[in-house]
Amino acid sequence: PACTGTPPCSGPSHGNCNGTTQLCQCNHNWTGEACELPCVHGSFIDPIIGCQCSNCFTGLSCDLECSDHGKCNNGSCLCNFTQGFKGAACDVPGCPGSDSVVQLINGTLTYVTIGRPLDCSGHGTCNGGSLTCTCNPGWRGSGCEIPDCPEDCNNRGVCGDMGSGVPNCTNCADHWMGPACDYPCFHGHQIPMDSGICKCNSCFNGDDCSMLC
Q1: 80 DSSP 8-state letter
Q2: For the chain, how are helix, strand and coil distributed in percent, rounded to 5?
Q3: Are 82 and 90 in contact (CB under 8 A)?
Q4: Number of H helices and number of E strands within the chain?
Q5: Residue 52 pLDDT level (bands cut at 50, 70, 90)
């Protein structure tokens, strides 16, 4: 037989040589011209198709999980947002970002919902040459995914887009209010929330409830 490999087709445990076509007919879990490559996550179909990969896997040996740009979850790829790849196999290049809902809660970056890849998170412009983002005002990060509020709300509130398209501070911690959660409400509470109105406790008055009656 003139099939490739030493021994031909890497031996009977990997495949056999077809004397008519002089091509290797690989066994179930092997692929390649000489059946030298394991078919890690798939099945060998024929010498032309080679290894047919299972969901989430690519490569000649079906050994690349989501093209090395994500993780497989219940048969579907979850692409790494920071790498910018998208598509069913995370093999389509693009800018980093996603349509996830992201907030800074008391200074901690929190994914409220996990979405799908989206160039610059819809908050900036993707440079198709360099695959980098130029973020709109109010957003930062490689994928424009991080809301950028004044002073990050001083770690006393929630920084996020509440529907206006531009992030702002809401739900300031008790005894604080203002656009950066930086205005004190000494002896009272902000009522209603996010109103900027400090409702004083008994015996106190003033805009910040700091004055005794």
Answers
A1: -
A2: 10, 40, 55
A3: no
A4: 0, 24
A5: confident
